[in-house]
Structure formats: structure tokens, C-alpha cells
Design goal:
Jelly Rolls, Aldolase_TIM, lipid metabolism, 31% strand, alpha+beta, GH59_C, TIM Barrel, 8 helices, 3 domains, 8-stranded antiparallel beta sheet, Immunoglobulin-like, 667 residues
Length: 667
């Protein structure tokens, strides 16, 4: 890098005018949700969970996100899995379910200035009698926003209408009216969060519809790096003084290519599409590895709460190049945000005072390129810090630049990221002694008695990941202790195609083992256990690849092979039988046993089914429930045991003493 104050031949000249004005910067961030992406984060020992959260949200430390978008949970699968609603039914309200409350609270604790945005993917079946675009859904949003404020002391800044499900102009008007009547007029509405080529076609209606114009605060859409905002929409947003936000960008790449592509996307989202807030999907990879999109999008991988191990992806430092050098409420300076002649792009952002930062990337540049800057409009001749990332090293501080007579020069290397700023205090945050990776504990046994107050744990046990439906900690129907209860009887209005309710747990490398649970199916339904689960769908659809054994209240026991690409909804029936039952006995132990290609089902310790199948040799365990009419899918489960073949019953699995409840005084 060459630093001087003399113009070079063929160098690109850029003027930064502090008086030029420009559009308000509304932040950069990431999404928690759109799938149960943060589910295992809640189970981390407190020291490691705090480290992860520091790396995500702490100012001037790691990614230092300035905005966060969370899913308003809705009981339905929305890519990786499902998250529990605060209102399973109309009369229900509970603001301790799930883990998004935890994430928002911890983000605010670290950075009180972070803005919080939200959107719905799925919703409970009862909403609008099956119609998402309804007054019920407006009320549902309001209850969630009020719960966030009343229980956690957090004001929501903005909310969408529905993620990637088209346009409904009547709904956004109804939502605005409902928010206003509830004293929530300051909550901005962004619309309509779609990704296709016609995503902004609805906007022109605002010119003739004054109610619509008053209802929508922000024009929002997804994946502007793939389908940019049309120039006509940018002009319309400026005419109506309504900003453009990218509420879900996608950068699915590996290593440093992901990092520099992210920064290039952030820059070009503004330069080309006029987006003043860009949120990338998704935040942290706290899902099991067999779930879709488990590795490439997130900035961190944190899927081993039992060991405490996690690791940072290089892309986190791409966020840091923005997060540690900008603040919400700054402005993009006119005339100082553009592409670079030699390849790449740059943006310049200025504080309400006289601080400013330049963020540049040289993705696809072939050689060094020199930039000559002139600063004016009251901007100081202050010394500038310089931070760089390239394929060899990420987020490294270089030699300062001191402007001379309001001029400075910098030579940028190809395939690099630079942040140049008057701000100070940046650091490449890190922690020593991150625990080593370990396999999931085996054997594993949980009777759910350690969860004295289910609400303190978000009603979710450690290590399970609900893919469809919701498996909550509950009292046993016979009042003899704790258990798991699959509570969604008739499904949800899922963003992605739903399937039979199931939750997964364990290690994808398991081959020969037994998984069992005491089950209590509904009168017209069945409960089951799963094994050798190797996939949970494609991300749009959640039918698993693996085996499951079902057991109904009338004694029918069936063994199924399920494949994510299979045409049969229930899966392929491998074997079935009906066994006589004692009508006074409600609970039965159901076991699925794998030994090579032999797969067996046992009920109360007795072998009832056995078959041979070689489709899946390894995979995780799980619990599942369903019914013939798909209206009675609730079931209870207790004494979950994953063990070696014919193994003795082990002691209850002991969790780390540092794993603590995520809420205090949960409802």
C-alpha cells in the first residue's frame, strides 16, 4: 500500500464533501430465523454463549452488527425448522417460548443502539381461519410487539408483512391502522419482502392510493444483488421520501470469497439499488449439520453446545468492516459512493458530526489501483486508520494515513477489503481456550426432570431441534413429572411445505444403536421414534431422510422409510402389525433398533416388527407424532434414551454446570 499526497497519472480522483448530504444509513445486519437457525445457541454453556454473542453484537469487537432482524415465530417450518409461537391458539399468550427473546435481549444488552426488525414466515393455523392476510394476524403481530416491550423492555423499530409470500395491499393498511390504534405508530412497516423480478411492481400504486402511501414506511425486498432495484423505484422512493431496505440478502460462498462478496454486496446494494439497510440471511449456524444451508450463509458455526466448541467463518470480518466503522443514523455522502475504475466499489459514510469512513472492496480487480482523495465541506484533516482483509489475513490494521492540505492517497491491492476512518477503538476480538470439538454424548438419557420451570428454558429441552411442529417441556398428563409434549395438533400456516411434526437430536455418524421413548399418543393419533435421520429436507419442504416407527392408541405399530424426495407423504411402509393393549395403560415404551441392515421395533421390551433395509446406514435420532386426519398430531414423550445395542440403562445425562436457564421467572 502506497501512502502519499501527490496525484499519480491514471489514478482515480474522488472528492469527499462533508456538506454534500446524502441518504440516511439504516444499518447492516443479519437474520435470526427464516428457519430455526439459532436453536442450539440457547443450550451453550454461559461462558461460550456470551463469547458468541460478543462476537456478533459487541461494538468494536467482532461483527458489531447495527441491526438485527428476527422471525416472529409461528409454529411452522420456515426453512430449517419451526419456532414456537407466543399464541398457539387465540386465547393463548406466552412470552417465554423459544429463544428469539433471548437473542434480542442479549443484542440490546451489548449495543443499546442496535435496531430490531421483525417479520413473519409462518403463523398458527387459527389465524384468520387459515388466512394469514387477516385482522387476526395484525393482532398477532401487535401482541408480539407488546410482549417484547412489556416483558423485555425492548421497542421494536420495524416490522414486515410476510416473508416472500406476495403482496396484499389491504393487509398493510390494516396493519398500519392496528399498530396506530395500539399506540405503536412509531413502529415502521416495510413491504413486501419478496425476491422475484416483479417484487417492486406494487410500489407505483402508492402514487394514487394515499392510504397505502401513509401505511408503508419502507420499500423492502430481497436479494438485490441478484435482481437490483429498478431505477424508477429508486426515483419513486426519493420522491416519496421512503427508504429502500434489503431485508434478506443471500451470499452463499466459502472462505474469503464469502467475506469479500458480502462487502461487495453491501456496497452495491446502495450504489446500484439504493438500499440503505442490508440484512443478510442468516446470523449464526446453530443448527445440526444435516439441516439445509447449515454451513455457508452464517458468520459463525455454533452447533456443539455439549462441548462448547464454536468457530468463526471469515465472513464475520466482512461484517466488521462495516459494523466497526459506521453507525445507524450516519449518511451515505453524495458523490463519494461508486464503483472503482480498476474493479471493485466504495462507499463513504459520515456521522452527524465530522467523522467519516470509507469502505472499499476490490473483488475481481486484476492489479493495484491508486485512489486520490480530496476532503472538504468541513471534514477535518484528522489522521485516518486503515484496516484490511485479504485471502491471507482478515481484519488487520495497517499504517495510518495523515491527510496533507485536505488530500490523501491510497493504493488498493486486488481482492481485498479496506475500511478507512476517523473513528478509533476497533479491534479484532477473539477468545482463547475455545473448548475442543466433541461428539454428541452417547449414550444419552433425559427424563426432563431437570427443567424445574419450563418457561425459564423457553419451554424447549437442551439439544432437540424441532423441524416441524413444536415439542415443548410440559407436565405429564398423569402428573408424575415432566415430559415433552408435541403441542401443534393440526399443523400451521407454514412458509415452507410442512410435514408430520418431528424433532431431531444427536449425531449424524451414529450407525448401530437403539433409540427409545415412553410415548402417549392422542386418542386418534400416534407417537413415534426416529433413527438414522440423515437429512431434514431441502430448505423448502422438510420431509426427512431416515426411518421412524409409529405407535397408535389402538395398538397399531408401523415402521416407515422416509426419503426427502419420496412421493408418498408418510413414507414407504416397511412393516406393520397390531398388538393387544391393556386399556388401562396409557404410556408405552417404543424402541427402534438398528443393527446393520436389520431394523426392529419393540413395544414395552417385546419385539413386534423386524425388517431388512439398506437405504440409510447412519443418522440422528428423533421423536415424531401424527394422525390419519392430521388434526390430532399432539402426543407426549418421556424418558428419551439413545443407547448402544442391548445396552444397560445409563444414568441421566448430566449437562454442564454452566448451562443455565435463558430466562428468569419464565411464564
Amino acid at each position: 500500500m502506497i501512502l502519499c499526497c501527490v496525484n499519480e497519472v491514471n489514478a482515480q480522483s474522488i472528492t469527499i464533501d462533508g456538506d454534500a448530504g446524502g441518504k440516511r444509513f439504516d444499518g447492516i445486519g443479519a437474520v435470526s430465523g427464516g428457519g430455526a437457525t439459532s436453536v442450539l445457541l440457547k443450550d451453550y454453556p454461559a461462558p461460550q454463549r456470551n463469547q458468541i454473542l460478543d462476537l456478533l453484537f459487541k461494538p468494536d469487537f467482532g461483527a458489531s452488527l447495527s441491526t438485527l432482524l428476527v422471525e416472529v415465530p409461528g409454529d411452522g417450518n420456515s426453512t430449517q425448522g419451526s419456532e414456537p409461537s407466543h399464541m398457539h391458539f387465540r386465547e393463548d399468550e406466552n412470552y417465554s417460548r423459544g429463544y428469539e427473546w433471548l437473542l434480542m435481549s442479549e443484542a440490546k444488552k451489548r449495543n443499546p443502539s442496535i435496531t430490531i426488525d421483525a417479520n413473519g414466515w409462518s403463523c398458527p393455523k387459527w389465524i384468520g381461519n387459515g388466512n394469514f392476510w387477516s385482522q387476526d394476524m395484525c393482532n398477532y403481530y401487535v401482541k408480539w410487539i407488546e410482549g417484547l416491550k412489556n416483558v423485555y423492555g425492548i421497542d421494536l423499530n420495524a416490522i414486515g408483512c410476510r416473508n416472500e409470500r406476495g403482496v396484499n395491499l389491504d393487509f398493510v393498511k390494516m396493519l398500519r391502522t392496528t399498530l396506530n390504534k395500539s399506540g405503536l405508530s412509531k413502529v415502521k412497516i416495510h413491504a413486501f419482502d419478496n425476491w422475484n423480478s416483479n417484487k417492486f411492481d406494487w410500489c407505483k400504486t402508492m402514487l394514487t392510493d394515499s392510504v397505502l402511501r401513509a401505511s408503508v414506511d419502507v420499500l423492502s425486498a430481497h436479494t438485490m444483488s441478484e435482481i437490483p432495484t429498478p431505477p424508477s423505484v429508486i426515483k419513486l422512493s426519493e420522491r416519496l421520501n421512503k427508504p429502500i431496505w434489503n431485508t434478506e440478502e443471500h451470499v452463499y460462498k466459502k472462505g474469503f470469497d464469502c467475506e469479500i462478496s458480502l462487502v461487495a454486496s453491501f456496497n452495491r446494494n446502495f450504489i446500484i439499488s439504493g438500499a440503505t439497510k442490508i440484512v443478510n440471511w442468516y446470523l449464526v449456524g446453530s443448527t445440526y449439520g444435516i439441516e439445509p444451508f447449515s454451513n455457508k450463509p452464517p458468520m459463525m458455526i455454533a452447533r456443539q453446545p455439549w462441548s462448547g466448541n464454536y468457530h468463526i467463518r471469515k465472513v464475520l470480518w466482512g461484517y466488521a468492516h462495516y459494523g466497526q466503522f459506521t453507525r445507524v443514523g450516519w449518511q451515505y455522502l453524495k458523490g463519494a459512493c461508486d464503483t472503482l475504475v480498476g474493479g471493485g466499489s466504495y462507499v463513504t459514510l459520515k456521522s452527524p458530526g465530522n467523522d467519516y469512513s470509507i469502505i472499499a472492496e476490490t473483488k475481481n480487480a486484476k492489479k493495484n489501483q491508486t485512489l486520490n482523495f480530496t476532503i472538504k465541506g468541513g471534514l477535518p484533516n484528522s489522521t485516518l486508520c486503515v484496516w484490511r482483509s485479504n485471502i491471507k489475513e482478515q481484519f488487520i490494521r495497517l499504517q495510518n494515513i495523515t491527510p496533507v492540505n485536505s488530500h490523501f492517497q491510497i493504493t488498493l491491492e486486488p481482492e481485498s477489503i479496506y475500511s478507512i476512518s476517523t473513528l478509533r477503538g476497533q479491534q479484532k476480538g477473539s477468545f482463547t481456550e475455545i473448548p475442543t470439538s466433541q461428539h454428541f454424548p452417547f449414550p444419552y438419557y433425559d427424563n426432563f426432570e431437570s427443567y424445574k420451570n419450563a418457561g425459564n428454558y423457553g419451554y424447549l429441552p437442551h439439544y432437540t431441534a424441532d423441524i416441524s411442529g413444536v415439542f415443548e417441556l410440559a407436565e405429564r398428563p398423569d402428573h408424575k413429572g415432566k415430559c415433552l409434549h408435541q403441542v401443534i395438533k393440526a399443523g400451521a400456516q407454514s412458509w415452507a411445505p410442512g410435514w408430520i411434526p418431528y424433532t431431531i437430536i444427536g449425531d449424524s455418524s451414529w450407525g448401530d444403536y437403539e433409540v427409545s421413548a415412553d410415548v402417549y399418543p392422542s386418542k386418534r393419533g400416534w407417537a413415534g421414534v426416529m433413527g438414522r435421520v440423515s437429512a431434514t429436507g431441502t430448505g423448502y419442504g422438510c420431509k426427512p431422510s431416515g426411518y421412524y416407527c409409529s405407535f397408535s392408541a389402538d395398538g397399531i405399530c408401523s415402521l416407515f422409510l422416509s426419503h426427502e424426495n419420496g412421493k408418498n407423504k408418510m413414507g414407504k411402509l416397511l412393516a406393520t402389525t397390531k398388538i393387544p393393549l391393556d386399556s388401562t395403560k396409557k404410556w408405552h415404551q417404543l424402541m427402534l433398533r438398528f443393527s446393520g441392515t436389520t431394523i426392529s421395533c419393540l413395544v414395552d421390551g417385546k419385539l413386534v416388527l423386524s425388517t431388512v433395509d439398506s437405504t440409510f446406514a447412519k443418522g440422528m435420532a428423533g421423536l415424531i407424532s401424527g394422525s390419519k386426519d392430521m388434526q390430532n398430531n399432539d402426543a407426549y414423550f418421556d424418558n428419551l434414551l439413545i443407547n448402544k445395542l442391548n445396552g444397560k440403562t445409563p444414568d441421566i445425562t448430566v449437562f454442564s454446570k454452566d448451562i443455565r436457564p435463558i430466562y428468569k421467572n419464565g411464564q
